[in-house]
Amino acid sequence: MNLKFACVASLLALTSSSAVGQQQGRIPYGGSEVFRFGLYENKIKELTDPRDALNFPRESIIIVLGDSSQLSSFIDPVDLRDFVDNGGAVLIASDSSNQQNVRPGVQTWGQQFGISINGMHVTADQDKCYRQLRGRPFVRPRQPVWNAPSPFDLFAGIEANGSAALATDHPSEMSFRPPFGFRASNLAAYPENSRLVAGPRSVEANRNHFAVALEQLEPGGVGPGRLLVLADHSVFVNGMLGFQEDPNVEQGFKFDNANWQFSNRTIDWLKAGPQKPRSKCLFIEDGRIVEKFAIEVPPIPRPPMPDIPPDVLANLILNQANHFIRQAEEQNFFNRVLEGWLGLPRLLRMFLIVTTIIFVLVCLTWLSRSNRKPESSSTLTPAAQARFLPRGGMMRQRTAAQLEVANLFEGASRRVRVRFDVLGGQPSPSGKMPSVLLADDLRDAPILHESVCWLWQIGYGENSLSVPPEEWDRFNGTLERVTRRAARGDWSFGQDAA
């Protein structure tokens, strides 16, 4: 089952219990919280003891992300091979070497399955890399050799380049010599002319493997046991899933790669069981067992309602009401209501009574005015009165006052607080700025940090900063750019202790 986009949006109200040091509701760039949330939405239960998975292979999934050199500390490689032989499902995604033998005299998991990851990172030409960044080559799917269904379905519709391509981040070379007793599938490779990041050597053909799969063979066909190995775990991390803010689409987000689609398909492929879907998963990430995929936390408080001046609010209400009033008038709604409620004779009688009362009041007003003659010296001409009247609404008067002193600080401060309050930028009880958390792989981290600090001082600082009118466009551009990058996960405010 493919997860719907609304499930991902609701991740803002969830947080992983293993995200130590992270604020609730915020996820790190390099974590696997979104991928684990996919398991949570598929009703897959967490396992914390490897024996619970090994004893029930046809009901269980084992997922290993990141460093796999410590896998034998949790599961003996022979037991892992037996797990697949007995119908279990395994995903191993790692760009680090699996050739190191942690326990002397014991085969590694790679030796059990004929898969060798050497940890030599791969790159490609700039136009074949994700966002044209060195070390992030796209994956080149290979042509299927088996009839559907098969592991090749994982790469159906995935292109070799562009927004429909699978993006990696410093993947590794991998060689593949499948053992007897499995149906082997060589699913994907790296682009042509790929080479090593650390040197000029090209990726050799026998090491040009990104994704391989093994399926258990039984008399009469393929059994339920399956293994999928990827030479990079970054395809599943939060920051590489391709979510990109776009206010022009209905959801507010779009994808600039196929990683999220591939993640859903991988979960579906692992979940498929012989009689019923698998419902349990042992998740090992960088040598530790993840005990919780996702837990609910209190929702993030909504931002306060903006302080809208009364004249602006009245104009908004009138603009919205004009459309409905015009439609009611075209359908003669008001006349039909009055006629049905009062009737024509009663309407005429009430009209005459009201007209008479108004006429009497006007006559009395004229008579009372005739007894008072204003002094000519105390009478102001219309031109003199007009000079004392305010020009425009409250907001326009305040803006004009700021322009007179050539400082738009008040408006700039209000705009910053509206954006940063939602991001958790309120000052600490001591009045200081909260810490700024930046993603590890940002090239412009110092510039981004300086921009956030400058905007925070405008919004919350004790001293007023000068924002001249000629700097207004630069201020707005910086605020929009910093806000978009916060939504993309490049930075966030930390939660400092009081």
What descriptors fit this protein?
alpha+beta; nine-stranded mixed β-sheet; three-stranded antiparallel β-sheet; 14 helices; 18 strands; 34% helix; 16% strand; disordered N terminus
The DSSP helix count reads 14
Task: Give the CA-based shape.
Answer: elongated
User: What is the domain tally?
Assistant: 2
Give the uncertain stretches in residue-range form. 1-6, 9-22
The assigned structural class equals alpha+beta
Percentage of residues in helical conformation: 25-40%
The major pleated sheet works out as: 9 strands, mixed
How much of the sequence lies in strands comes to 15-25%
Indicate the radius of gyration in whole angstroms. Answer: 34 Å
What is the end-to-end distance?
A: 45 Å
